[in-house]
Fold:
Amino acid sequence: MEQLPFLPATPALAILVSLLAVPCIYLSDQRPNLREGWTFAAAFAKFFLILSMAEWILAGNTHTYELCRILPGVSLSFTVDGFGMLFALVASSLWIVTTIYSIGYMRGLNEHAQTRFFICFAVALSATIGVAFAGNLLTLYIFYEILSLSTYPLVTHHQDEEARSGGRKYLTYLLSTSIGLALPAMLITYTLTGSLEFTSMGVFPADTAKPLLTILLLMFMFGFAKAGLMPLHSWLPGAMVAPTPVSALLHAVAVVKVGVFSIVRVLTGIFGIDLLAATSLNTLICVIAAFSVLVSSLIALSQDNLKRRLAFSTIGQLSYIILGAGLASRLGVQGSMLHIAMHAFGKITLFFCAGAIFVATGKKYISEMVGIGRRMPVTMFAFFVGSLSVIGLPPAGGLISKWFLVLGAMEAEMFWVLMVYLASSFLNAAYFLPIVYRAFFCSEEEAQFERKVAEAPLWCVVPLVLTAAVSVLFFFHPQPFFDLAVMAVQGR
Amino acid sequence: MTAAQFPILILIIPLLAAFAISLFGGRRDKLAYGLLLAAMSGSFYAALQTLLLVLETNIPIHYRLGGWAPPYGIELVIDHLNAMVLCLVSGCALLTAIYSLPTVRAEIPDRIHHYYTLYCLLVTGLAGMVATGDAFNLYVLLEISALSSYAMLARGRGNAYYATFKYIIMGTIGACFYLLGVGYLYIKTGTLNMADLFRLLAEEEMQQSITIRIGFILIMIGIWIKMAFFPLHGWLPNAYTRASTTTSCLIAPLMTKVSVYIMLRLMFSVFSVEFVYGVIPWHEQIVWLASLAIVAGSISALAQRNLKKMLTYIIVAEVGYMVGGAWLANESGLAGTVYHILSDALMTLALFMAVGAIIHKTGKSSFAAMEGIFRKMPVTSAVFVLGGFAIIGIPPTCGFFSKWYLIRGGIETGQWLFVGALLFSSLINAIIFFRLIERAYFGDLSGHGHGPLPERDEAPAVMLVPMVVTAAALVIIGLYTSEIIGRIVLWTIPAGL
Structure:
């Protein structure tokens, strides 16, 4: 076998590195600069550890590292493959950007309990990478639960009545589904097949009864409620009470993407695309996801709170990803994997903008943002780019993934799915572009802002410009992510 | 050779310490405390050595008291199952002993040495029940532990006397049932040694005997009363709630777990797999009853507003877990029960210790005590949260893995009611604990987190250290699940299952 260009334990180290930062962050409670220094150190270390494996993975290899045997027959093991690498790269690179942003946001608003905030963030990122590299379903489940719990203090950060009810909803939805549906589904799978490993062929024998498969499929899809599939979505708008950096990274990238990642992993690794197509269970997945796509987009139209509108948009976009995997065609799955990356950069930009507006002006509602482009042109331009990416228009990365999703629908010969994608893109445009339009083009009487540029602090603006720029960059250079997605579909 | 004496040292050290403490401990509290710690450490060390010996040879140790051969002499038989439970008993007793001093001083200021004497006797009784290889001896030790526990429980708060009196009645009835059952076995077989009984009861004639069946049923009912198996649990919540902090930390985790151990021991070392599941075909109904116990215990726990009482109802539900797992009649279920003895003892210990510290510091035992506790007692609340996670069954704490095996056992045998009850109880536990964690985290809402923060007021180090050790054990045991299952639990699965 070829020599590994990195330590065999690198996946485990990439997970551990942010946990190791936790005591350091805790101990430098009184010295904010040092404390944020630790966060940066951990974020960069994590990113480079993951990057060090990227080349090897891009060359078409996968790497498995077994940490310990946690149950007889099932181990705590990490497998780095194209899909996991793609997600880990997205999450870890955005952590760096979000850290910059959080410093601007948290200090700008002089928030309390910042140490707790950064600690929970570090733990949450560990869990996210743990899910990305999970080598089997049990490992994935363990990190999934750790993520739910470590993000609870973040969601309820404000510690007021609204945060309490948001947090309650958050935990109720996430824990009850994971314990009540995903866990028994996993155990039934294990009892039936004796395996929880992800393989492209799936673990179920060909003669498994279809009703049983259908039940298991539904249990898994709704069990990972982080994916926000309707009707188990309402925790997500509720969780928007969190500070914006949390909404940005966790509720546009880490938490919700962990949900769809888990579902796609189960669909491709436990059921196997071929089995789904052969039993035409994929139609069921498509129907559920398509419903979610359309309804959430319609609800988003009516939201006046900017973060809530973004939340409903996220619910729709997450269902895109599941819909893509549900097509059970190679191009569709590639598209859905790519969309995890593309949507992440687009949506985080939008959230960053919402937060920057809040920090600079204290405004939360879209109706109060008429003419805001005069005051915050950079932010609103980035918002425009982010919207383009989410809608799927050039020159932004979202087009690439949507392109493949549409191709996948044609490959699977499911033309109604095609129509769903198109209809939802129109809706996306309908709920995003008016915000941008009204921000720049309005009469003097309507405008609620002076014609004087006053942006949010630099710590806030730089990250959102960065992510917007990367979104555009992906339009021209989607190659690395594209290759990873291709590899994830073919290689395994 | 000293190594061969370890099994008896587990029992003898606390017994002798009981005499020493009652004789000399009256002079100074610290002396009684020191003697207690020394005795518990010695007992724990002996138990650990015994466990290592069993793990090394993988054959049971037979220790004959005074060299008298069974069936006439008394014998200690230590295999994988009771070596583990012995370590658990003496380990928990040691941790609780370290933890005890501040609360005992506050709650039982007079005659601390008498209290500690009872403590040693209780541990002797518990360890003796676990170690013995003789069915009658077991009864004697059961009474020793029961009598000392009555005395300890009665020295509690409020109407502890009345609650304990109810327990005495119920406990005595339970013991009588057990004794009666053993009497039936003795009439038929003429022996009380467990190995001997096992050999004789395997005969065809004995398998068909009505007397033996009735004996078995009486024994089981007796043990179920002792372990508070629903619907025979009525005595437990009040008795444990009113008890003083240290008493409940010692008794609540251990008493029920030792009873579960005795049930397993009698099911498989006196009777046999064929008899228990075959001759008496009731195991499905017992699993249903266990499911009911889980649901009833969980719902009752949800209804409580007193921290300790809530925990006692959780114990009732957990007893349902273990009884159900044992009667599923398959390997995963039984492995889950054995593993759960270990994990449940530790998680209830962690919770009782944390709650005890909170009550000790705040003086309140209702939910109001939890308000703002994260700020006031960060370490204690971390232990509480971890214990709660283990009860809910969140990985990687050990509670997840016992649930994993129990649910798997339920799925494999098609006992969906049991599976549903386990999941239901996990969800209820999640509600119970997050309701408290919310209070602990948000505290008084008027401050909005920006107001004046409550002062830090943490429990003393002697209480914190054993708590943290227990909490760490929850995670460590969880991570070493496959080791524990492979090296200990699977050895306890009887042949023929």
